[in-house]
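Researcher: Structure prediction, please.
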Amino acid sequence: MEDTIEPLGELPEFEPEPEAEADPLPAPSAASAPAPAAGTASPPRYETIMSIPVTVQVVLGGTTMPVSSLMKLGRGAVVALDQKVGDPVNIVVNGRIIARGEVVVVDEETARYGVSLTEIVAASRDDRAA
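Model: Predicted structure follows.
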């Protein structure tokens, strides 16, 4: 099944926070949450799920090669990928493509790069039903 792409338009500039300064989410406590009134639904507890770790990968491309070619690879070998320079890269979270973007230089001094999101991939019907 093909994923549907929705253009994002203009995105705000993303400035990642240094990990040392990141403030961890406080652990939810039963004492701090008010009890819901009788007959009312309890509010969603987003803080519970916000600390769940997910695996984020940026996929530059892929290739297929015979094992014999794979075994000949060594230091300095170049593996040609199926993507071209300038093609969007896939952002994958827990094995599912969630967005596409462009590779950008984040900090020239430290030679770090990142991805500027250009498209969000809409969930397929199968994903929404699960």
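Model: Helices lie at 46-50, 67-71, 125-129.
Researcher: Thanks, that helps.
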